[in-house]
């Protein structure tokens, strides 16, 4: 059994399997998952797990090259490494870009527009 980091086996596997340029979406409970995109559904109840808790866990193990989020979210507290560019797009553009994701990680977050797309980088 893993002692630390992401303990959810499916999420841990998805992060480990990402290649350069792959997109991982961390989503609130209401974001539609595009057809054909894998969904790791972590939602237990409304608010559990929180978006920011899942984001922190993923960021602790994922090399992120860039990110994007909906401008409608305002300041939802998304803090990605200051060296990572986080583009603002409309919510509709966010949903369109989500169709190219490798995976959508669904949280229990009930805050509207609490979604972020993380583009995988390389560690060298």
The major sheet is characterized as: 6 strands, mixed
- Poorly predicted ranges (pLDDT <50, ≥5 residues)? none
The pLDDT mean sits at: 92
Number of strands: 6
- The sequence of SSEs as H and E is HEEHEEHEE
In percent terms, what proportion of residues is strand?
15-25%
Quick description:
This protein has 124 residues and is an alpha/beta fold. It is 21% helix and 24% strand. The mean pLDDT is 92.
Topology summary:
Layout (H helix, E strand, L loop, with lengths): L8 H9 L5 E5 L10 E4 L9 H9 L4 E7 L14 E5 L1 H8 L4 E4 L9 E5 L4
Parallel strand pairs: 1-5, 2-5, 3-4
Antiparallel strand pairs: 1-6, 3-6
Essential attributes:
single chain; 124 residues; alpha/beta; six-stranded mixed sheet
Outline the structure in words.
The structure is a single chain. This protein is globular. The chain contains 3 helices and 6 strands. The mean pLDDT is 92. By secondary structure, it is α/β, with parallel strands linked by helices.
